[in-house]
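Bit of a strange request maybe. I'm writing a small parser for structure token strings and I need a real example to test against, not something I typed by hand. Could someone generate the tokens for this chain?
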Amino acid sequence: MSSTAHDYLSDNVVHRKNEERRRLHHEADVVIVGAGILGCALAVALGGQGRSVILLEKSLKEPDRIVGELLQPGGVAALEKLGLRDCLEGIDAIKVYGYDVIYYNEEVRIPYPENAREGVTETVADSRSDEMRGMKRKRPEGRSFHHGRFIQRLRQKAMQNRNVTVVEGTATDLVRSGWTRQILGVQATVQGEQDSFFGGLTIVADGYASKFRKQFRTDLPVAKSKFWGLELIDAKLPMPNHGHVILGDGAPVLLYQIGTHETRALIDIPENLPSASVKAGGVKGHLKNVVLPSLPENVKPSFEAAIERDRLRSMPNSFLPPTTNKAPGLVLLGDAMNMRHPLTGGGMTVAFNDAVLLAELLHPSNVPTLDDTKLVLKQMRTFHWRRKNLTSVINILAQALYSLFAADDAQLKALQMGCFQYFKLGGNCIDGPVGLLAGIIRQPFVLFYHFFAVALYAIWIYLTSASILTLPVRLFGSLGVFWKACVVLFPYIFSELKS
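Reply from user aminoacidic:
Good idea to test on real output. This should exercise your parser:
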């Protein structure tokens, strides 16, 4: 028998044994709680490395959510690295080429940067060199889609991996060693019966409302507003194949197409907003009286029809800074570990890039067995800091942009106006910020540079628009604008530097 045939037979024997362990004894190398974006991606990645995986999900029905519907180019690139790019096919996904920012009915197009690669911005010379070799780059693209359809495609991929067993059941508790307190697996309810699943490593990716998070960290997610979602039918968007950010007197409104005929509208409503009070007609009253008049004329008919037709649904806009995983045998990931405002659509980009990085760090060549808790925790410390080149940018940008776009005082309004005028300058004033937002540019200093460039430009406009008589007052006020920029940005930078 040839060595190749022998290896094939040996591999099949190992596979059958592992499958039997998962099916009969509920034992695997890794147990993953949550078959969402991150859980499915990690199951496929680790299964592809030969790890035996149990993927536990409370319901395998198609989810129906109003977020997780726009994947930035940096997320598409990570999806490709994971071998899951084809999950974007066959779900009526829409190509996204950038953003259209509408500020008091004035708009500016913000396309994804043409001369950008992952992590860097190309020079003109780089671009011309590629053209001379017949390798002209096209602009990166994002995708928008129905969240549930995308999740089902990811789950199909996990189920097709021969090293992965998907179980429909609700995780209820963690299984701990009575001696070492190491996490050994999870208890779950499967078809009404109590059961347990054991793994050398347990990964919890059970989402923003994680039931296990509070056992391992004392801080809680902070949510100061909610996104309320509507589904518009055959809406005529000002700029097809673009996400739309509508800014005015209130909090921002997002519009982006998620199917051939469907467009998602997300309306940010801060807590205790007077125009959304019961006395003012509640959320529907706010949508009709405040949001509807601020929309582009072509969008108004479909938006108004959706108000009357749709059931109103909401999701909290939460912020939770990342923390290092320190519990032996356990890893918290995804929204259970780190959240940012969904304004910039960065959540799935973070998740898929986390899956790429974690699969690399936990590869059998680096961690031969996942029950080596000391080595796994060492790799998790590396994971915490290596992911920051991308995730700190996305986290800070999301929170800072929301502060500007939901401006509720004079200083923030000045910064908001300065941000829009900065975009109008074009060139690097667009390519830099949208490259960061897209998950293409992974350099925190670039974010710092553009944010304070916006602040200084806002101050310049603030001063030059003043008359001679009001200039002294504006000079004093400009200090307030700069201080507000610091107050907006630095707390989120400090949150990223914590371990």
